[in-house]
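# step 3/5: fold
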Amino acid sequence: MIDAACGRRLDLPWLADSTKVAPDDALTMREVCGHCPVFGHCRDFADRVGASGGFWAGTSYDARTRAHPGLGDVA
């Protein structure tokens, strides 16, 4: 996603384990995602592939799995 806002903020831990992300970084990442032109595509991609970590569409993997039980389950 060439237009993704996160591509301009490589200083943030986008792919880190959510338990190791500082609260300030998580807040900043949510703000970056909130203004991203590909937010919906990012969210759909993360849901479709069952992303197993990282920060996608303003949400950590842990928060997404709480919102969508079963997401990321291995069949």
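# step 4/5: annotate
The chain has three helices and two strands.
# step 5/5: archive (pending)
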